[in-house]
Write a structure and sequence with these properties.
361 residues, alpha+beta, Aminopeptidase, 2 domains, 13-stranded mixed beta sheet, 11 helices, 26% strand
Length: 361
């Protein structure tokens, strides 16, 4: 870090000028305007996570970079919002030369873990343990152009989904969609559906963690055009049957928490909601929808291409780094092995689902 100074602050201590510089640096990088790498997201996480910090890199007193992170025991660090953030990394002046381990030392970190590092983060990609696909939907040429491509790629998908929407209207009641809803009851329903889905599939219930529920509530009430929550709801017969809470910037919508009422599952309300959302998002200036990494059949049907994200960690020599490696590397290696063997991955999925069903009894 010779010639540069690192100032470590809490996210709430950043002022409007630092936010402006952060966003200018993001724009200069040419990376997509993913809201998870906006200062407003880091600030929101800072309000619910006491270990949240930002390393402000300064050159002659002027900010030239920002690294948002969370600090845990023995200096173990992680990307801000790790576990719920779909895009992670540092925001740096193009061409800025840094030693990543030196940066960690300046932050008093023994390690820095990431699970959705965005492509182009050349400071950290050499430390990636795995490369993951993150499907996206391109809407820069409008929804109709996208729908034409969808018909060509999946001839029956769009037709069948629209037919199910008509059946939903006939058998349940009038179908109504709200792109940017303010419906607390529907938001609570979304959280219930999503929690049940987590338990049913044997996964950790994110909404059982108070900080995540508080973070969603904060972002749902935010009004920053560069990073705010968008809550979309599909109603049938006057009741919500599917919903999604996502995060948006001026041009990118990040898919975050989608769920639906399983009592209406035969109508595929989640897919109906997705198509309605894509149309409304395109009309609202969204040019790309980031569906996030992780396998899902509906993502394969909807996507137009894939971005690359990375999982891994920068680890410094020393006791803290050793503790990190012993605690995290075996689990990561096991997940990587399972992902690389489709039959084993399917068996693991069935086992998790079976465990989830046992917990529901």
């Amino acid at each position: 870090m010779q010639g540069k100074h690192v100032l470590v602050v809490r996210p709430g201590e950043l002022g409007p000028s630092e936010h402006k510089t952060w966003r200018q640096l993001r724009a200069e990088s040419g990376a997509p305007e993913n809201p998870f790498l906006d200062p407003a997201f880091t600030t929101a996480v800072g309000r619910v996570r006491p270990g949240a910090r930002v390393a402000v890199l300064q050159d002659d007193g002027a900010p030239v970079g920002f690294l948002p992170y969370e600090r845990g025991p023995m200096g173990q660090g992680r990307a801000i919002g790790l576990g719920v953030s779909d895009s992670q990394g540092a925001v740096l002046r193009p061409g800025l030369g840094l030693d990543p381990r030196g940066l960690l030392a300046a932050c008093a970190l023994s390690s820095w873990e990431f699970d959705s590092l965005e492509a182009g983060q050349h400071l950290f990609t050499p430390y990636a343990a795995e490369e993951l696909a993150s499907p996206v939907v391109d809407l820069d040429r409008g929804y109709e152009h996208y729908a034409d491509g969808l018909r060509a790629r999946s001839p029956g998908f769009l037709k069948q989904t629209l037919a199910k929407e008509r059946r939903l209207a006939r058998q349940v009641g009038e179908v109504r969609f709200v792109y940017d809803a303010h419906d607390p009851e529907a938001l609570r329903a979304l959280m219930r559906w999503k929690s049940a889905q987590y338990r049913r599939t044997g996964r950790r219930d994110r909404f059982a963690q108070p900080w995540i529920a508080r973070l969603v509530d904060l972002l749902a009430h935010g009004d920053d055009p560069e990073c705010r929550g968008v809550f979309s709801v599909l109603y049938a017969g006057g009741r919500p049957v599917a919903a999604h809470f996502g995060l948006r910037s001026a041009t990118v919508l990040s898919w975050w928490f989608p769920a639906y009422d399983r009592d209406h599952g035969r109508y595929s309300p989640g897919l109906v909601l997705h198509l309605r959302m894509l149309r409304a998002a395109a009309a609202d200036g969204i040019r790309m929808v980031d569906l996030g990494s992780g396998p899902a059949r509906y993502k394969d049907s909807l996507k137009t291409r894939e971005l690359t994200v990375y999982e891994g960690a920068v680890v410094r020599p020393g006791p803290g780094g050793t503790v990190y490696r012993l605690g995290r590397e075996p689990a990561r290696a096991a997940r990587r092995f399972v992902r690389g063997h489709p039959r084993l991955a399917e068996a693991a999925r069935r086992a998790l689902t079976g465990a989830g069903r046992l917990r529901e009894r």
